[in-house]
Amino acid sequence: MESMPGRWMARQHQAGRRLCLILDGKHAAREPLLTVRHLPQYCCLYAETAVAELASTGPIILLLDQLGEPALVELLQHPQTNWGWLCSLPGDDLQGLARHWRERLLVGPAGSQAVYRIHDNRTLARALAHLSIDDWPVFLGPLISVYYWHEDRWCEGENPAPGEYPAPVPAPWLNTPNPQAQAILHANILRYLLTEHSERLAALVEFQDPRIWLAQVLEQARAWQWRGPQQLEFLVVRRLEEATQTSGIRWQPMQEEAPGDHFERVLKQWRRLREKV
């Protein structure tokens, strides 16, 4: 196996390290990889957690012994499918590795927790790019080296101090910016407008591209530091009304006016105008 990941795997093997694969459990390679392994050679990441009911389709961690096994070779030939990533351990303690990630798996307050998608190579890549090197050990734990696909190329990362670490609160990797967050916000707002304000949105379409219009409105929200859901909804809906009918709202902030005061003043102004209609 002379590919770039093959050379990385060979180096890890020569250094006496155990190779692991973190795999998206819904990938087609799951079954052929599990078929040739006994239970000590793999574990389901979601097992023994609050999302254990998803374990059968959730991510898995596997030890790699045969570097040329067909299912693995197929994965390495198609990294753009974002199936997961490779790593190396000092031994074969999969349970210790699973325990490390399970302690970092659920994020958010009780009752509204979300699953941290550590099995996704894009999540791993963004976290490592965001974290300082001092935070790598507490994030990667027992892993010695990681190897992953990111932005059309293979990347390698070396943990400066592998070991066991408690999960920090707050976890620094949860502040990693999501490059798709703005696109998701755009899509959600347009979906909301289509559902709740379809007539006005249809009127806007007649003379302006809604996507361009929304980008301009959200840029205004950014400049004014209106980040809250109520502030965004108010600005988008009122601006949509303004785009399709006349309005007397004076939007611009006053000199040295705080973002919160600016929003409250504009909101009161709109309420007064509505009372006159």
Spatial strand order of the main sheet? 2-3-1-4-7-8
Mean pLDDT: 91
Low-confidence stretches: none
Main beta sheet strand tally, sense and closure: 6 strands, antiparallel
Q: Determine the N-to-C terminus distance.
A: 75 Å
Q: How many strand elements? A: 8
Description:
This protein has 277 residues and is of the alpha+beta class. It folds into two domains: 4-174, no CATH class; 181-276, no CATH class. The protein has helices at residues 4-14, 30-35, 70-77, 94-102, 121-130, 136-140, 181-196, 198-205, 210-224, 229-244, 259-276, and strands at 18-23, 42-44, 60-64, 84-89, 106-107, 114-115, 145-150, 153-158. The strands form two sheets. Strands 2-3-1-4-7-8 form a six-stranded antiparallel β-sheet, with helices on both faces. The chain has a two-stranded antiparallel ribbon with strand order 5-6. The longest helix has 18 residues, at 259-276. The chain is elongated and about 75 Å long. Pfam families: DUF4123 (PF13503).
